Structure formats: C-alpha cells, structure tokens
C-alpha cells in the first residue's frame, strides 16, 4: 500500500546537542557523546542518591550520555503551577518543550 508522508516540523534534544542541527553535526563528525558525568550534574545526582538512601561509596560513577540542561522548564508558559512542574516526570516536561518546538518549526501558531 502506497502512502505519502510529510514531516512538516521537527525538534529534538540529545546528549551534546540541544537541537537537530547540533545532533546532525555530531553524527557527521563522529562525535562520541558518551562522557563522564559533568560536574554540575554530579551534584544533582549526589543529592538525589542521598535522598534515596544510597551510600556514596557504593556508587559507580562511570560514563553515559547526558543532556546538558534538564532544569530549564518555563512552567508558566505551559500553564502549570511551579508545584505541578516539580511533581511532573522530567520526561513529560522535556516532551512538552520539544513538542512545542516541533510545532514552531512546522509554522503552526
């Protein structure tokens, strides 16, 4: 069955690439986005793990691919309260941001 498909808007966030152009450049240049935990993220991770009851010496801190900015969410723009935003899954906040950017890229108002 032949069906046409049109992609009219795209957006994305990736390790070491905050947009699709940077992601494509990383692919073209063979950039390995796996790295040690950045210092600003290590502090966040340590705080979370202490809160969860993990012992600091029991943690293995290896390498992984990380998004650089996980805190930049404008809750008021999306019509949610600060408290709601704090309780939202970080993946949901990221989805809202990227979906909005994809709509902007498509020219939707």
Descriptive account of the structure:
With 109 residues, the chain is mostly helical. Helix content is 43%, strand content 4%. It contains 4 helices and 2 strands; from the N terminus they run αβαβαα. The protein has helices spanning 20-29, 39-52, 82-87, 90-106; strands spanning 35-36, 63-64. The protein has a two-stranded antiparallel ribbon.
Please state the structural category. Answer: mainly alpha
Tell me roughly what share of residues is in helical segments.
40-55%
Instruction: Extract low-pLDDT stretches.
Output: none
Separation, N- and C-terminal Cα atoms: 33 Å
> Looking at the chains present, what oligomeric state does this protein adopt?
single chain
Mean pLDDT: 86
The amount of beta strand, in percent, is: under 5%
The ordered H/E elements are HEHEHH
Strand order, biggest sheet?
A: 1-2
For the CA atoms, what is the radius of gyration? 18 Å
Total of helices: 4
Topology, number of strands: 2
Biggest sheet statistics: 2 strands, antiparallel
Topology:
Elements: H1 20-29, E1 35-36, H2 39-52, E2 63-64, H3 82-87, H4 90-106
Antiparallel strand pairs: 1-2
Keywords for this entry:
single chain, mainly alpha, two-stranded antiparallel sheet
Outline of the structure:
The chain has 109 residues and is mainly alpha-helical. It has four helices and two strands, in the order αβαβαα.
């Amino acid at each position: 069955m032949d069906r046409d498909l049109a992609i009219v808007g795209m957006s994305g966030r990736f390790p070491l690439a905050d947009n699709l152009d940077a992601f494509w450049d990383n692919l073209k240049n063979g950039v390995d986005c796996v790295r040690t935990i950045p210092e600003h993220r290590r502090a966040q991770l340590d705080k979370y793990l202490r809160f969860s009851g993990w012992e600091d010496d029991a943690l293995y801190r290896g390498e992984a691919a990380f998004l650089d900015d996980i805190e930049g969410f404008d809750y008021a723009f999306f019509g949610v309260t600060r408290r709601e935003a704090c309780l939202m899954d970080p993946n949901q906040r990221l989805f809202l941001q990227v979906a909005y950017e994809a709509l902007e890229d498509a020219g939707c108002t």
